[in-house]
Amino acid sequence: MCTTPPSSAPPPPPPPPPLTSESKFKSDKSNEISEDPSICEWASSELDLRKACITYQICLTRAPFRYKYKHFQYILQEGPTCGLVALSMFVRGEVGPEELLNLSKFFGYSNNGEMLSCKDMAKLAEKVLSLAEMENITCTLKKGGLYSQEIIEELLNGATLLVPYDADHNHSPCLRQGHTAHWALVCGIIIIKDPGEEYMSDPSNIYVLCRHGKSKLVAAWTLDGLYKSNMNLWEFCPKKAKDGLLYVQPEGGLGGENGLRDQFLLFKYT
Roughly what angle, to the nearest 10 degrees, separates helices 82-90 and 118-131? Predict the structure, then answer.
């Protein structure tokens, strides 16, 4: 018996589009996984951490070799205020984004919320820590060494980073020459398996946990990927330079010593 439909029958509907990583997480199957208490059981005391590990498929069935995570409440940005929002998250909202915007304008670091200089961000952070009365925290401007044994150990010991990078459409690190510069608050690290004598021997083994002003969720990216994106911040976006707004750009550009490239802030508790 022939099962071919007659020619007058309408064609079958096209197959559904492939699921993205985000939509997969939102699917019924992923929801079932997230509700399974045995998945990422090691992170069950930290809901945001567990959700991040499920989203990025990290250590689903066994605990990582080592990890450190510090919870910060998300704050969503309005306008180009990603750096200010990340800094406000770090001080637990004691100094809000609007107050930070006013401060950055007053001291000449920004016009619209943009922070295109790590030096200026470090100066602003010092003032904010004082306003928030967080005298037990030190802020250090670091030049180079984001992907290093030193920084990995600092994160494992509870340090927090404020890192500029190029953001892709899903806000993960990418390489766009600085045209999509963004800021992330690095609030944790995961070493998936025992690296032996050298933490840096396998770049895919080290993830950092991050918050930023475009999402309510904690992101998990490889430290190597964040490092490469930070190293790629060469120039201010040409389109933004023509959008009619006046931005405070550092002398020498984003890629110079006064800019963003190969620099970040390290916060430590004393």
Answer: 40
| Domain boundaries of the chain, sorted by first residue | 74-269
SS3 216: coil
The yes/no answer on whether domain 74-269 falls in CATH 3.90.70.10 is yes
Q: Is 2 annotated as catalytic?
A: no
Say if residues 191 and 180 touch (Cβ distance below 8 Å): no
Encode the chain (270 residues) as per-residue pLDDT tens digits: 333 344 444 444 454 444 444 444 444 444 555 678 899 999 999 999 999 999 999 999 999 999 999 999 999 999 999 999 999 999 999 999 999 999 999 999 999 999 999 999 999 999 999 999 999 999 999 999 999 999 999 999 999 999 999 999 999 999 999 999 999 999 999 999 999 988 998 999 999 999 999 999 999 999 999 999 999 999 999 998 888 889 999 999 999 999 999 999 999 998
* Maximum distance among all Cα pairs of the chain, rounded to whole angstroms: 83
- The catalytic residue among 53, 82, 139, 174 is 82
**20 Cβ contact list (under 8 Å, min separation 6):** none
Q: Coil, strand or helix: which one is 48?
A: helix
d(CA 225, CA 212): 16
pTM, full prediction? 0.87
